[in-house]
Write a structure and sequence with these properties.
By secondary structure, the chain is mainly β. It contains one helix and nine strands. It is 4% helix and 50% strand. The protein has one domain: Carboxypeptidase-like, regulatory domain (Immunoglobulin-like, Sandwich), CATH 2.60.40.1120.
């Protein structure tokens, strides 16, 4: 729903296992905000890859006021609870970004 109200980018995360689409993989985006760790979606939710191994997210820009510092201008991509060491950000300009992650490298 966010993309109907604020500018976003379209983020496509593709997860594969041995080069083939991996469905049902848990994906969470995490970053630091005001010294706390925040996740997208919220703390008790997560995204799961579809049958084509993808998660599609409309992500708004990471722009906060100074009183929200410290914060990271990007999100770390976690797969099945593991940090992949890959990060994404949004310019909130309607761009389409895609990132490929091999499941075996993420665990």
């Amino acid at each position: 729903m966010t993309h109907y109200y604020v500018p976003t980018d379209l983020i496509i995360i593709r997860v594969t296992k041995h080069g083939f689409p991996a469905s049902g993989v848990r994906v969470v985006l995490i970053h630091e905000f005001k010294g706390n760790i925040m996740s997208i979606p919220g703390n008790s939710y997560c995204f799961y890859t579809d049958n084509s191994g993808q998660v599609v997210i409309h992500l708004g820009g990471v722009t906060y006021y100074d009183k929200c510092a410290p914060y990271e201008p990007h999100y770390w991509i976690y797969i099945n609870g593991q940090n992949t060491s890959k990060k994404i950000t949004s310019t909130a300009s309607g761009k389409i970004w895609s990132i490929d992650i091999e499941l075996e490298e993420a665990n």
